[in-house]
Amino acid sequence: MSRTFSALVCSLVILSATPAWAQTASGAFKAEPGGTIAPKVAAAYVVRDQFNPREKEVEIILSSAAVNVAKAVADLTPHTTVINDPALKDTDYVLVWIKRDGTVSMNATFSKTMTQYLERTDRGGTFKAELSTNTAEKVAGRIFTPAPVKTRDGTSYSVDLTFSAIVTKPAAGTALPAGGGEPGKALGAFLAARDKKDWPALKAALAPSAAERFVKSYNDDKENLADMLDTLNFWMPARDVKITGGLLMGDAATIDVEGTMASGIKALSVVRLIKGGSGWVFQDAAMAGMLP
C-alpha cells in the first residue's frame, strides 16, 4: 500500500520517506497469563548502545499508535523521547534493536504493569530473527520464537512479529575532532566553571532555554547553583572528564563527553551547545550509557 508523506525539514532533522515503503508492523507477542501485544505501526531510528555508547544501533518501536519520530531524532536521547511519547501512554509496545553485527534483541512491555520480556538472538535457540532488509536507510524482518517460552515464574510467552520501516535520522553534520573543536573549548570552559562552582560564569554560558530551566527568580544564587550542579552531575561525568569528539550541525553541536559519574560509574554523555551572539553556549545534556 502506498502512502503520501509530507516532509517538514527543520535545522536539526531531515526526514526521508519512500511512499512505497510501508511503516508497518503485524503479528503478535502473547503472554499467558498477561495478554497480547498486536502492533500495527513501526518507526526506526538510530540510538546509542546503552551498554557501549561509543557504538550505535537501530532501534525500532512497534506499537498500535505512531510516535513522533521526528521529535525523537532531534533530541539527545531518542530512546527516552520515544518511550515517553504521549502516543504510548497506557499502550503496550515492543522495542527491537539491531546491532551492527546483526544481533537482534527485543523488549516487549505491558504498560499497565510495566512487565517486560527481554530476548536476544545470541543467547541460544529460543528467539530468532530473519532480516530481509538491514541497511542504513531501511530495516525489515521477522522476530519469532519457534515454540512458546516458559519463564521461571511460570509465565509462557511467544513472539511472531514482522516489521518494515525507514530509518529516520538527524540531519547530516560535520564530525568534530577529539576535544570538540570550538564548541568543545566552550564546553571545557563551562566544565571548569562547574568545578569551581562559579555561578556568574555558569549563568553567562547558558543558552536561553537552559537559563529558563536553571535561573529561577524565586531562588537565590546559592540555591540556583546547587540545583544546577545536582542536575549536571546527573547528566554528565563529574570526574576524569574527557571530550572525545562530536558533531557540528550549523549553529548546533553535540559533544561526546566520557568520564566518571558522581555515582561512580563510567559513562558517556552527550552535550548540546548552540551558537549565540557571544559564542557557543550550553543548552542541555544527557547520559547516553555506561562504558564497558
Q: Tell me the Rg in angstroms.
A: 21 Å
Helix and strand element order: EEEEEHHEEEEEEEEHHHHEEEE
Largest sheet: 12 strands, mixed
Unreliable residue stretches? 1-19
Strand content: 35-45%
Number of domains: 2
User: What is the count of β-strands?
Assistant: 17
CA distance, first residue to last residue = 43 Å
Number of helices: 6
In percent, how helical is the residue content?
Answer: 10-25%
Q: Please, could you describe this protein's structure?
A:
The chain has 292 residues and is α+β, with helices and mostly antiparallel strands. The chain folds into two domains: 13-170, no CATH class; 174-290, Nuclear Transport Factor 2, Chain: A, CATH 3.10.450.50. The chain is 19% helix and 45% strand. The chain has six helices and 17 strands. It has helices at 69-74, 78-83, 181-196, 199-204, 208-214, 221-235, and strands at 13-14, 24-32, 35-37, 41-49, 52-63, 93-98, 104-110, 115-120, 128-134, 138-144, 149-150, 156-170, 174-176, 239-249, 252-260, 266-276, 279-290. The strands form two sheets. Strands 1, 2, 3, 4, 5, 6, 7, 8, 9, 10, 11 and 12 form a twelve-stranded mixed sheet that branches. Strand 2 and strand 3 form a beta hairpin.
